[in-house]
Amino acid sequence: MTSLLFAIISLLYASVGQAGGTAFLSLMAFFGMSSTETRPTALGLNIVVAAYSTWLFNRNKVVDWTILRPLLFSSMPASLAGGLIVLEEHMYKTLTGLVLLLASAVMIMQRGRAVDRVGEIPLRETVSIGAVLGLVSGLTGVGGGVFLAATLIALNWASPRQTVALSPPFILANSTVGFVGALFTGQFPSPDLALYAIFTLAGAVAGAVIGLKWLSQTAIRFILAAVLLVAGIQLVRA
């Protein structure tokens, strides 16, 4: 049952360029999984989903590496630093939930016609934002794609469709670094990680194709906002 739910979550999140770490965390908390297992397990599943989505989008030449490189340059070391910090469980859930609710509000308030990039993206601001997103990602244990998507769209640095392709490699890089950080703190994933990974990969295959071929930019934005809202409420109430 748990594996099937992971697959459904993966499909829904992958359709909007996300890996599902926030929902994975909520689901594992609902089923009573130990708090020491939830963060590394979610990160491990993020790696599986994001690796496939990254490969697919890069093969279709829709990843704008010009935007992504400076973000990764600063986000990865910051994510490692955040991953080495272990927050008290209630503080961790509340912080993560509030950040997701804020991201959802930003996405909902975005109006007007979605466009591609507007002008050049300042390098200093990009590096600074990457560091902040990486630190938050490491602290919360999610890949950071939800934060990246909300930020890029709010600043009009990328269209909703572009963020679908930019989020997976960002999630993959930061989840990998965060996973290493979690291991160093003595947190290890569930023994069933391999089984969960098989089901989440199946969901990611279907979801990535749906997002790449059939969803409009408006649909992507509102689906992502809904995902953020639900996950944020779940974590704040946990």
From TrEMBL:
Signal peptide (residue range): none
Give its localization: Cell membrane; Membrane
Q: What residues form the membrane-spanning segments?
A: 43-60, 67-85, 91-109, 129-154, 166-186, 193-212, 218-236
Name this polypeptide is given: Probable membrane transporter protein
> Membrane topology per the record?
Multi-pass membrane protein
Provide this UniProt record's keywords sorted from A to Z. Cell membrane, Membrane, Transmembrane, Transmembrane helix
Question: Which Pfam families does the entry link to?
Answer: TauE
Query: Belongs to which family?
Result: Belongs to the 4-toluene sulfonate uptake permease (TSUP) (TC 2.A.102) family.
Q: Does the keyword Transmembrane apply?
A: yes
